[in-house]
Specification:
Layout lengths: L2 E5 L2 H4 L3 E5 L3 E4 L5 E4 L6 E5 L7 H13 L6 E4 L19 E5 L6 E3 L1 E6 L2 E6 L9 E4 L2 E3 L5 E4 L4 E4 L8 E5 L4 E5 L8 H5 L7 E4 L3
Parallel strand pairs: 1-6
Antiparallel strand pairs: 2-5, 3-4, 5-17, 6-16, 7-15, 8-14, 9-10, 11-12, 11-15, 13-14, 16-17
Length: 210
């Protein structure tokens, strides 16, 4: 299995249905109380790529992409139109969007991440597939220039500073990102007659761990 650094056609994923999935194990005790536990520290996203198809040309592009990935064998990039920025969808990416760490005067490698905050609780999601040309970095509130102060590994989402940020200095980032996924089926069944009647093929896609 390999990861192909190509994005599923964004215009086809635009109409897709999907989002995050959690796994929760619930045990009901004899007194009626529950014990809840999750073996997953991070959510996993699922989508249906078939919903975004609008023409037979779209179907042909889907089939070509599916064949090039050998079905479930090779993973790829997916644009989740509901969640693809370090900021709100209506805003422009800025280098102060997300706090990704603090300098210690020694560490030069930092992982991109995005915080989801509600009710005083924060979940921090690692970002492994940033989009080329969208990443912006800041240290101690000051803008840092790519290729001058740092570089980004687009395959892992790791930031490498050429000089370690000073101890205690907040490191912030802004970016667009993709979701690493694979097809969750080895078969796509398409009927031209059914498609023209509005019956879309189901094409499940699932997030993979990187």
């Amino acid at each position: 299995m390999a990861f192909h650094e190509v994005r599923f056609p964004a215009n086809l994923s635009f109409g897709s249905v999907g989002g995050p999935e959690r796994r929760t194990e619930i045990v009901t005790l004899t007194n009626g109380f529950e014990e809840r536990n999750s073996p997953w520290s991070h959510s996993r996203r699922r989508y249906d790529a078939g919903v975004g198809l609008r023409s037979l040309d779209d179907v042909e592009r889907l089939l070509a992409f599916f064949e090039a990935r050998s079905g479930q064998l090779h993973a790829f990039r997916w644009k989740d139109w509901a969640d693809y920025k370090s900021c709100a969808p209506s805003k422009i990416v800025d280098y102060e969007d997300q706090l990704i760490g603090h300098g210690d005067g020694v560490t030069t490698q930092f992982q991109l991440s995005k915080a989801y905050v509600s009710g005083g609780v924060e979940y921090r999601r690692p970002i492994a597939k940033p989009v080329a040309g969208t990443v912006k970095l800041g240290v101690q509130g000051g803008y840092q220039a790519e290729a001058v102060d740092w570089e980004v590994n687009l395959a892992t989402g790791t930031i490498g500073f050429f000089s370690a940020p000073a101890a205690g200095a907040p490191i912030t980032a802004g970016f667009e990102f993709d979701v690493p996924v694979r097809f969750d089926t080895d078969a796509i069944q398409v009927s031209v007659q059914s498609f023209q009647a509005g019956d879309m093929p189901q094409v499940p896609v699932v997030e993979v761990r990187i």
